[in-house]
Amino acid sequence: MNPFSSGTRLRDMIRAIRASKTAAEERAVVRKECAAIRAAISDNDHDYRHRNLAKLMFIHMLGYPTHFGQMECLKLIASPGFPEKRIGYLGLMLLLDERQEVLMLVTNSIKQDLNHTNQYIVGLALCALGNIGSAEMARDLAPEVERLLKFRDPNIRKKAALCSIRIIKKVPDLAENFIHAAASLLSEKHHGVLITGVQLCIDLCKISTEALEHFRKKCTDGLVKLMRDLANSPYAPEYDISGITDPFLQIRLLRLLHSLGKDDADASDAMNDILAQVATKTESNKNAGNAILYECVAAIMSVEDNGGLRVLAINILGRFLSNRDNNIRYVALNMLMKALAVDSQAVQRHRTTILECVKDSDPSIRKRAVELVYLLVNESNVKPMTKELIEYLEASDPEFRGDLTAKICSIVEKFSPEKIWYIDQMLKVLSEAGNDVKDEAWHSLIVVITNASNLHGYAVRSLYRAVQAAGEQETLVRVTIWCIGEYGDMLVNNAGRLDIEEPLTVTESDAVNVVETSFKSHSFDLTTRAMCLIALLKLSSRFPSCSQRVNDIIVQYKGSFVLELQQRAIEFNSIIARHQYIRPSLVERMPVLDEATHSGRKAGSVPAAVSTSQGVSVNLPNGVSKPSAAPLVDLLDLSSDDVPAPSSSGGDFLQDLLGVDLVPVSSQSGSNQAQMSGTNVLLDLLSIGTPSASSSPSTIQVSPSNIDTKSPVDLLDRLSSPSAPSVQVSTTAGSSPMLDLLNGFPSSSPIAVTEGNGPAYPSIVAFESSSLKLTFNFSKQPENPQTTLIEASFTNKSGEVLTNFIFQAAVPKFLQLHLDPASGNMLPANSSGSIMQKLKLTNSQHGKKSLVMRIRIAYKVNNKDVLEEGQVNNFPRDL
Amino acid sequence: MIRFILLQNRQGKTRLAKYYIPLEESEKHKVEYEVHRLVVNRDPKFTNFVEFRTHKVIYRRYAGLFFSLCVDITDNELAYLESIHLFVEILDHFFSNVCELDLVFNFHKVYLILDEFILAGELQETSKRAIIERMGELEKQE
């Protein structure tokens, strides 16, 4: 019985679904149908099986799950009649694909059907195999398909030919079995068999060089003749498409000739005439004709060189390019890209037209055109081309702008004849589409600017002008802020003015204004604002007159909810307010950034030193500490949400905060230095000195002559030890040792630290043994006299390195002890380094009882455990 | 090679979807949604080609129906555009003046026609008459 004759329920179901007014109603209908179908499936209902599956297919098309019908397909395929099989195979192709295990079960049914006496059933099986056959099926059924290539009915032969394509794609090893059968298909008369045969040959050529060689030798002449017959064929109504006989077959033939002629002079020679004929004689007023011409040009471009043909092909593309039909222009652009490799001169002649296409309203055309323009640019035409593209940037669609800016940036970077031109062009791009510029592009601009020492002033002044006009373009603002921070003085005093520049009068406060406006703008993200903050710090030193104002701005952000800004604001405020002496050297100009490393980084290569270090965190000079596994990509790394992890060594902190180059000695900071010295530009970019002293001559050393720079720990130790009267531990003191350290600098001058200002509580030697010395330094918060802050400093007097160093302390009940983590657990030999540890002691009997403490120190020397114990009784009184 | 063929109306309802490459069901729905979004609002003067992921969609609109073919980037766009038209002519001939409803109620026949026109992602027959005749023979088998 026919399930699809009128009155059957498939039609009714479709009607019911279409009649549903809401999605819920439709779901209800589908649910009901599915329930009925499931019931029929479990009843093993034979009569309506194919009708049910047909319904299921419709439901599947609507997007509902129908996996429960998969087995029904197999049952239908296994049933004897054509109508059942037809729906079964249809369901199989719709509901399953090659990855489902169930498909394995159907292999045998397909095999039987491939050998069926009814050729229509054979056709169904071939169709299923060709559309969803898996590699296993291909292997199992290849012999059947091979045999069917010689079947008497052409309808089966053409299906078998396409099926063979699927087979050789799934199992390339089988390709050679099909070579001869495929070649014999080429001498057929039936167009369906011919086109599938040609297609099979094309795919065989891709997979097997043996096939390629065979067809080249045996079939080239036949194919050329076939092509000629078709091209010269009189009107053939059956295959006629707008006056051209079977353009599909012609295109396939050209494509096969294309494969055969590539890299083979003889074959190319054999097909020259016909290619020339097709190129000159084909009608180009209809799509079908153009499709043939397009394919012919593609063939000409890849067959062995024949000057005359190439000219012909380029001329066709030129005609295409000026066609009014967008489709034709699109394929012309597409093909010109290939032609570029063959004859770039000829393509260059169409430059103006191609540039026009960049401005087309159709995004598909624009995209092709931009890609092509990108390939067309060279040293000699970069200036006019860039000019055109930048002019167009203004008018371009927002969604296209990202693509276009990326290409322009890449072009100017690659071909810029001189730095000043590059800077100018980038400025234009940033002003026009700064919000679309990728990070790498503006990073490169900064790198180029730092490298052009004669253009620093010019760059900062141009940027200043640009930002006045286009202050909403974020990346422009970033670059400007950075340059003002670095070269703000040159902006104001017009240093290094070029002849071409117009004079510009900018006061110091104008410069600060720019930074302040951007800083306070809500439209900019954290990176930009963090850059502003750093620029402000730098300006506070460059422009002493504005120092107070800068400080006022910074102070406002001490309460910022954005952790990064808050922390920087507190730090910078502290630098400005208390550390006039070191500030100028802290904020000195950045060293020149290495262009080679920068471009290397862009290519994705992270310096080995960084990538190999594991576990240890790399401290970025700007204070954000990150796991070293993450490549250091961000220029400032301020945008990351990472909270600066408290580092254990005081030396690291100072390094972190200021990026000052402290020559590494302490074990921990030493290892960090090693990782950082992979000349990492981005690391360098914001650090004031470079982490590795050797990489830059302009490294700043915070090393007033009377301070021992060999050890950062020593340095800090000395600075902070006599601290009692001057220390104003801020409220965050406990949690932020770094602030402590900074505040530990007496604001006037470090020299005073080592000389004057004797501490109220003298340091004591709390413990001393043959190998160890422990010193305690005391300080107190005035508002909290019960609490004593102790800084313990351990030094190793012996000649051996002490490792796994652990300090423990115990106190009587009236005391409360809090131990902060130690700065390290390794003590270098011969007093050449020390471990610092902070203790907080609260004396509940303050004024009545003195402090007392038992200590225990465990460490390893030469891999032997050593334990030292002692009691500290010599605390100063009234602590 | 054709990777998939979609026949969608302006509302994005899929009337025919044929995949010659394996895709997950969810991925198919995503593809159908994306292709519809890509083609539905394009200016008629624009090219009939849209780049889609790493491939190209060649589409053509007939009244309220969009016929979209996803093909390899190196394929001949103009030829596939022409083949869409041939397919539509075959449908038109078969259903004598085809409309969307014909395709809805006779979706299984549309698949059958398609299977006679394209197989394994390649063109199988270029003669309209041959396909119509073949369909007649197949219907006799029912």
UniProtKB/TrEMBL annotation, chain A:
Membrane topology: Peripheral membrane protein
Segments forming domain GAE: 759-876
UniProt key word Transport: yes
One Pfam family named in its UniProt record: Adaptin_N
Main localization category: membrane
Gene3D superfamilies membership: 2.60.40.1230, Leucine-rich Repeat Variant
GO cellular component, one term: AP-1 adaptor complex
Subcellular location: Cytoplasmic vesicle, Clathrin-coated vesicle membrane; Golgi apparatus
Protein name: AP-1 complex subunit gamma
PROSITE patterns documented for this protein: GAE
UniProtKB/TrEMBL annotation, chain B:
Pfam family, one: Clat_adaptor_s
One cellular-component annotation, GO: clathrin-coated pit
Stretches assigned to coiled coil: none
Biological process according to GO: endocytosis; intracellular protein transport
Keywords: Cell membrane, Coated pit, Endocytosis, Membrane, Protein transport, Transport
Major subcellular location class: membrane
Keyword Protein transport in annotation: yes
Membrane topology reported for the UniProt record: Peripheral membrane protein
InterPro entries xrefs: AP_complex_ssu, AP_mu_sigma_su, APS2, Longin-like_dom_sf
Superkingdom as given in the UniProt entry: Eukaryota
Cellular localization per UniProt: Cell membrane; Membrane, Coated pit
Domain AP complex mu/sigma subunit span(s) in chain numbering: 1-141
Family according to the record: Belongs to the adaptor complexes small subunit family.
Protein name: AP complex subunit sigma
Originating organism: Solanum stoloniferum
